[in-house]
Amino acid sequence: MNVDSVVVLGGPAWETTANQTSMQTARALSSSVPVLYVSRSDPRPIRARIAAVLSRSRGSRKSRVVPEGHDLILVGPPPWADWLPLVRPAFTRAVVRRVLMRRIELQLRRRGLSKPGLVAYWWMFPEIVASPRWTWRVFDVIDRHWGYVWLRDDRERNANLSLAIQSARAADNVFAVTQGLASELSSESGVPVEVLPNAVDVERVKAIFNNTSRAVRSLNGRTAVYVGGWNERVDMGLFERIVVEQSDWNFVIIGGGTEAVPALARDNVSFLGDLDYDSAMRVMSSASVGMLPFRDNDYTRASSFLKVFDYLAAGLAVIATPFEATQQLADEHPEVVTALPADRWSEYFRGENWASDVLVDLNELPSTVERAARLSMARPDSSENAA
């Protein structure tokens, strides 16, 4: 890896049992090299955080324990800087950037680390990516950051896109989770972008089940599960129609609550709220089908869905609306993954294709460890770029 440490820049605050790409990367790399995981304590947009404070909905406390056998250092801005906007205005972005770099440098010096590599998830700090401090630098684009629904206008979207372009140009290697996202960013930035889809932590899944059975589907097991929140990606009309039409099915929802979707407050729907990853995987393994009822929009077309791999790892059949990522998995695993438009979901639940007892071999799923290793393979000329 030709470095003595790696800085993973950006992502949600570290949670012991959470499952998110930047955390996966930090977790995988920190088993062999010291990793500084840089994040805010709360990744939500400032407006959402203010609303939560005013409503006194602070959320539950999460465990920050570092997994045993991993050398992981958690770094973040001080509480006051944690509230400053990261994109606009330029002044607050510069303040946070300087504070973060000072804190990163302090941790590196304390550990005697002099050759750090950088894996950047935050797109808003191209100056950090371009810093000569790094032996090599990678920009891992896991989302369409300039297309978030909470961006209020084209000015905000263009600001996000501009910073993402600058970060891509400053990096030695740029990766994106889908071909559509890679093509768009490459076209905008003029730099090559390699496709590197999301992956599953295979060893972690094996430890969760500890060689016990994953889901074995049967005609008697008519339970479907959805993991995630309610946002612009979800086709709520499809979700509500399937729940009503398939009254002989039970639907389990992990992550979302009835207060957001009162129409789903039905006898055949169970809301379990937020669960840690290990618990969610065990619940999933008792179901038959994992659902991805998503809309067709720019945001979903640019996504590589982690939950598809989690569903497959738990032993579920998967029904999804067709996008690049889900269609590719349907082509690779036609016996367990089905990509159908919304008007054909009812026939899937009425049929018996989902009842196959075929399970995807965990070793056939893309591995988080392998993905992290690919990210950390710098170009031969990257040391010259860092000089």
> Strand portion, in percent?
5-15%
Low-confidence region ranges: 382-387
How would the global form be characterised? Answer: globular
Oligomer state of the chains in this structure: single chain
Succession of helices and strands: EHEHEHEHEHEHEHEHEEHEHHEHEHHH
The chain-level mean pLDDT equals 87
Q: Kindly state the percentage of residues in helix.
A: 25-40%
Number of strands: 13
Secondary structure class reads alpha/beta
Radius of gyration: 21 Å
Give the N-to-C terminal Cα separation. Answer: 17 Å
Task: Give a quick account of the main beta sheet: strands, pairing sense, barrel closure.
Answer: 7 strands, parallel
Question: Which properties best describe this structure?
Answer:
single chain; 387 residues; alpha/beta; 15 helices; 13 strands; globular; disordered C terminus
Structure commentary:
This protein is globular. It has a seven-stranded parallel beta sheet with strand order 3-2-1-4-5-6-7, with helices on both faces. Strand 2, helix 2 and strand 3 form a beta-alpha-beta unit. The C terminus is likely disordered. By secondary structure, it is α/β, with parallel strands linked by helices.
Brief synopsis:
This protein has 387 residues and is α/β, with parallel strands linked by helices. It has helices at residues 21-29, 46-54, 90-111, 126-130, 154-170, 179-189, 202-209, 236-245, 277-284, 298-301, 306-314, 324-332, 345-350, 368-375, 382-385; strands spanning 5-9, 35-38, 72-75, 116-120, 137-141, 173-176, 194-195, 223-227, 250-254, 269-273, 289-292, 317-320, 337-339.
